[in-house]
Amino acid sequence: MDIHLSDAEKVFIIHGAEEGMRADGRSLFDYRPIIVETGVLATTNGSARVRLASTDLLIGVKAELTVVEDFEHYRNRINFFVDCSANATPLFVGRGGEDLAVEVTSALDVAYDNPYVLPDLKKLILSPMHAWKLYVDIVILECGGNILDAAGIGVKAALRNTEICNVIVRPADEGKCAVDLANDNTVWKMDVSRAPLFVSVHKLGEANLVDASLTEEACSRCTVSVAVSPTPECSQDGTMLNEEDCIVTMVRQSGGGSLEMDSLDEMVRMGVRMVDELQKALDKRLKEESEDIDADPSLTFLL
């Protein structure tokens, strides 16, 4: 998203980043305050709201029972849709936010386009004819920078909050199957321990930083976005992630600048390290919320 800055302002921001001092007082590796709420929409199977400073996203997950005619060509994946609300910024009026929506949607599609990150996807296939189809809708209520990282946090939180009905599959006429709801109305939840999180690393001058604000994004030469899914062993023992302990499901470079291989490797490694800390903080927050019935949904975690 474009924001107009004078040359003097850009020089101030870039030189500050190169000295390790950002305009808002953070270090290069600091995130702004993150607030995560789950179960905020009663009309969905799962939902979450993420506020990353002035960035505000609302995520809803709907499970739809579909009839599949040809499972051989059926794509058992999550369907993402991003809507940029005109209330977020006047630039989104009309089709102003279409490019940003396509960018976030495609990044999520690529990161989740493998069976490893969501092992319970196979449970969505109920019979030779029926399957649950998951739709994830993301509404950008306010844009304050770092949309992709916030979307990754919100999608994982919403999927963890998603409840899918248990059903009974019985044979029907003409060799077909019928699906009925279970009498006890029980539900099950997906395993999202391997779901990827995103970290966008920005290059300002010679400095690399995470969680860029709108003004920092305007000064960025280029951005490397990394989606990382931890291995089950690393998820359980809580050790520090490295390149051997995780699966990078997406790497994307954006912006007009080019990178040398050494710089690209450094930015990817930085993204992997920051995903590790982000993953631990989010898992701790969601675990506390699920265990404490009286927990305040507006609690925040800081990195």
Automatic annotation (TrEMBL):
It is found in: Cytoplasm; Nucleus, Nucleolus. Pfam families: RNase_PH (PF01138), RNase_PH_C (PF03725). The keyword Hydrolase applies. Keywords: Cytoplasm, Exonuclease, Exosome, Hydrolase, Nuclease. Its main location: cytoplasm. Residues 31-164, 198-272 form the Exoribonuclease phosphorolytic domain. GO terms for molecular function: exonuclease activity; mRNA 3'-UTR AU-rich region binding. One of its GO terms (biological process) is TRAMP-dependent tRNA surveillance pathway. GO terms for cellular component: cytoplasmic exosome (RNase complex); nuclear exosome (RNase complex); nucleolus. Belongs to the RNase PH family. This is Ribosomal RNA-processing protein 42.
